[in-house]
Amino acid sequence: MKRIIKFYASWCGPCKVYGKAWDKVADKYDGQVEFVNIDIEKDTSGLAAQYKVKNIPYTVLIKEDGSEIEKKGRLSVEELEELVLS
Question: Can 15 be counted among the known catalytic residues?
Answer without folding.
Answer: yes
